[in-house]
Design brief:
alpha+beta; Antithrombin, Chain I, domain 2; Alpha-1-antitrypsin, domain 1; 2 domains; 9-stranded mixed beta sheet; 6-stranded mixed beta sheet; 10 helices; 32% helix; globular
Length: 420
Amino acid sequence: MKRTMMLLNILLGAAMMFSACQKEPDVTPADNKPKDRQDIVLTKTQQQIGYTANTFTFDFLKAAAAKEDAGKNIFISPFSIQMALAMTAAGAQGETQAEMYRALGFQDFSHADVSEFYHSLIPALQDVDNTTVFEIANSFWAKKGITIKPAYIKDIEESFRAEVRALPADGRQAAGEINGWCSEKTHGMINKIVDEVPSSTIVSLLNAIYFKGIWADPFNKEANTEDKFTNWDGSQVKTTFMNKTFEDARVYSDEYVEAMSLPYGNGAFAMTIIVPRNGVSTEKVLAGLDAEKWATYRSGGRYYRTVFSMPKFEEEYAAESLCIEILQDMGMQKAFSGAADFSAMSDTPLCIDEIRHKAKIKVDEEGTEAAAVTYIGMRVTSVGPGGDIFYFKANKPFLYFISEKSTGEILFCGSKQALE
């Protein structure tokens, strides 16, 4: 036991020294000339995991929309939530891990498969577009006195590139350090995820992602117009719309939706906007959204000379108790109870006590800046070209997704119901 504690303290100390020596990359890419886009190469198993990961995305967004008040704007990073949970699940065993993997959509894959997926995907996503800043950060925090198994530490460091840090015993100091980490990793977009870390929390896990993409074909501010956006309840708000005519843009259209993707940088990342047709709600579109339809919406349809218009907007969204409620509805029960088994992480009986998620986005003429943080707190359990012209206008409630082209991996998604 003493040897294990000494090893953990050495690992914690080394990780903190390494973190202190690292220089945070500049938020602006050094090279603004796009290099040719290259597909991210994944194994067949990793492609299947990515496919099911998007199923989790749609299920979580549907559940959040159903549980929030009508007309509530939602913006989340399912990618961040999923990665934080996967890092936590790496320390689970038995039915606890099985439930977590079922909720995440990973039930048909081994722990080694999931670890290899993130081990391959994290660096690939960060390197796929030299003109887009996309950063992924993971961290694991533990209080002194708890023994964390070295195999788990090695796993999350290698698979998730996680930093290992000491969690201060003082709740306010712990919150200050965690919030500081979030602010640093999101370049100031998200400065606070917790007010105070409860004394009962002895382990915390965090994921933070930051995205800054410049449109491949930026909007001209001089083309902006003032127009009306129709909110979910029929009320109208005057706001600034960005406008552009694309000579050859792919648009998907059927009796329910119109969908179009706007690429960033070299085309590796894109925002897909899905606008329901008149008489169709975003809820109805979400209800039928799955991985197959997602593939159609983001890359299907035909080419048109397209007059495009969408509002500039900013959004910030926080989900606290809602995350646990949704995950429990998805079948993840034991991880939150005294029956939780995180024995691959520690012999101390642990369960998940708190999950917080916060995301923020800004969309303007130049591009998109977005960030998200997912926080998981754990405590000791009480027991163990055509000639047609297409007019595409997002002037009413719409859905939007930011994804990587070759894998289809969704990084952020939202439902815009109203403008103030």
